[in-house]
Amino acid sequence: MPDSVLWCVSFDGTPMSGVVVEALKLGEAFRQRGHRVLLDIGYDIKEDKGRFFAPYTDEADALPGWVELVRVDEIAQIPWYTPGFVRQTLGAVRRGYQPSQTVACFEVVVEALARRIEQTWHRHGVTAVLVENGTLPENIAYTQALYRAIERYGPHLADRNGDRPFVLWRDHDLMWNSEPSSGKYGIAPYPLTPQPRNSPWIRYLALHEEARRRTLEWVPGLRDLRVLHNTFDFDRVTTASGLREHYGIPAEAALVARCTRLIPQKRADREIDLLVRLGERLGDRPAYLFLAGDPSEHPPTVAALKQQAQRLGVEDRVIFGGRLAARDLGAAGPGFSVSDLLAEADVMSFLTSYDYESYGNPIGEAVASGVPYLSTRYALYDIVYGRKGLHAPVLEVSGPDEAPLTDEFVADVAELLTNPLLRSRVAAHNRARGETYFARSRAAEMVDDLLGERPQASGARVVASGIVDGAVGRGDAPDVYSPAGRAAVPPLAAGTRMTVVIPVRDEAANLPAVIESLAGQRGPDGPLDRSLFDVLLVDNNSHDDTVVLARQLAAQHDGLRLHVIGESEQGVSCARRTGMGLAAERAQVRDGDDTGERFYLVSADADCRVAPDWLYELLSALDGDKAAIGVCDYYYDEAHFAGRPLLWEAIDRTIRSRRVAWERFGGFPDGKGFAVDRRSYQRVGGIELSYQLEGGRFVSHLSDDWDFGILVRATGDDIVYVPTSRVEINPRRVDHAIDEVVAGRAYGSGGIITMRDIRPTGPGGRDLTEAEAVQAWEFSIKDFMPKNMILAAVLTPSLLDDEGVIDLLSPELARRMASRIPQITAQTHLLSYVPIHSYKTPCFRLYFEFAEELFARLRAKVGPDIGYPPPLPDCLQEVRDTGDEERFREFVRHYCEDRESGEAHDYFGNGGVF
């Protein structure tokens, strides 16, 4: 018998649910490391399932053969521990009473439960415990008892495990996620519910960053709380297994699969309505709906669904398939599994209610199986799936759980069912995106970490572009070398929280100021501890003394750690990517996937100056806010523009507008100064380069920093604006080509945005004429508004519900933009933002439709000098003059569809001005 034993306890109280499946996925990771796996389904915890003290019967048929069903010894013999007792405790919580004061024998029951749990663990030789949903207020006595048992049992394992935790405690349905509209558990924040408590024996897991954030709002001092998404086996691919033939589903039929419990909250009635609507669009091809789920769990729901199907005339095409074995677990019993169903289904449907489903395993199972899915936009859909770039028809659903089947949604589903090429492309895209977030390896790594068996992190070898003994070293180099070809970059030191990445090329003139500013970083109580950060200089083919001078300057400051690597491919985007990638890999090697303390990659430009508290403010903001990216405040020194009042006026208006917008929307990273959490950086694959043609040669696209921010925002992570972390922009960025700045072509034209040498080549310092000042401002504001106000809302529509955004836009404007954004993105089929630059089309269209109102709000919030929108292109003005707004919208669509080239791109300034 194995000397390592895992005890899993599920507070779900049902034989097969997403909670149980996820427990067993972690259980399998323990089993592969030599553990015997025991499962207590939790019948003796939840009374509302009707199974309290019920014996196990055929539950094992749906479970893998390596799982042993267990329960706490003699739990049914505890006096006063009855379904009525459980109902009393929940009722006390809902009424705001302490159960210990209002429920008879509460403390006696808690102590009796704790003793029996501990005795049972001793009898089985338990060495690890997995708790699923232990913080639900349904049975507070059991939660309290479990905590007592853990604290008593922990010292018993100390000789074996040392001071490591032996408990993974994961809450799938935290109180704010689980049926809030039903009032089943009362009203948040549930002050009487036992809060998660700090314990040397427990590691807490949250399903996503939103759950982690809200948990920490509830329990601010909770220390060991990490994020582990539900995981799925992307290697498990099942071929046709005869399911269609078994259930009499024709081979040519379109098969819609639904794999959830058959209870009212899951709203399977919507799939039956959809089946009827699809019949109107699929012609002679029949459509079938397969409803998997235990019909005995809630018979009234099954009866209602059958009556609905009969009333609508589709009862012969609605298959009630019963309880299927979980997709990712090899069941011991006979019958079909979810994996078998997905192998023969055309789509997976999950039209669940707005507030019931906190995660949505069926979507992840479909993605891993290579099957397209459709879903409602339930409360946490965007957080869990929608922002990760997956493609799917999504039905809008309101807080009151109203979700009418729109013609557009039904048409999208019909297209998936009738277009095999589209279906295969969507499935392949989703599978590739999903594997980034939901691979089973994440669960395995968490188990390794708990058991103290964490292996060397994948990708541990530090690799980046460099120059090795004068030759260009790419990708497969055994180490990273400085341009001198000798000194390897050392491992990341313990305690280092940030690496500052600075691309350089012939920057000897600016380096003294840069190094001095980094050496002079301060915190609230004096100089910033230099062990908190190091500096990675990425030399991009310098011809001057940049590298030598950098090392000399760093050596003059004790404790300032500066490393130099080379990147031979020309372009600041290439250099930044190489530096950020190496910084992330060093942190990965040091930390693995340990999420206890965050590590940040910080971008800086060699020609800009940072404030003394630049790093401290970024670190404090990101540690406190838990956002993925912190964006600095960028400004020009007015003194540099003395004698040039018209130019300064245009610059100042742009900066003031940007601050107002970023305070509400969060901003986007600019290479001049931003920080990103290392794990978020790696989740999206790092900085993505794209290439364009210039003069017959491929050159790297310049806007890598903004594109990276768009990618992070589109996948659901937050960006925070940190106005106290300040960066001064070098005025040469304006002086280098003032004629191009005035014309709005600072970085090219015709859709080409490429890097140029911004060091002035001739006399600068002149002011603008009145006409040039108007031209410069108009290009500046046209570039600013789509990028700094509209883009964030396009990527994260929920921002339009934010109080600060509503204050800026007005409630009415925010409401109408929130309504218009999904219409535009649906028309342009931007179900994800790949390629990354396709964000421009909806942003340009929204600008044209709402410019008058947006400018009015900026005038109110920034100042009357903001003025009014620049003139429309003549072609659009002609349409507007007709007074037909619908026709104007339509021609705006055609004008903006050119995306990366053409007149629309150049109208908006092509890359910004200030």
From TrEMBL:
Residues 499-674 form the Glycosyltransferase 2-like domain. Signal peptide: none annotated. CDD domains: Glyco_tranf_GTA_type, GT4_PimA-like. Pfam families: Glyco_trans_1_4, Glycos_transf_2. SUPFAM superfamilies: Nucleotide-diphospho-sugar transferases (SSF53448), UDP-Glycosyltransferase/glycogen phosphorylase (SSF53756). It comes from the Bacteria. Gene3D superfamilies: Glycogen Phosphorylase B (3.40.50.2000), Spore Coat Polysaccharide Biosynthesis Protein SpsA, Chain A (3.90.550.10). PANTHER family: GLYCOSYLTRANSFERASE, GLYCOSYLTRANSFERASE 2-LIKE DOMAIN-CONTAINING PROTEIN. This is Glycosyltransferase.
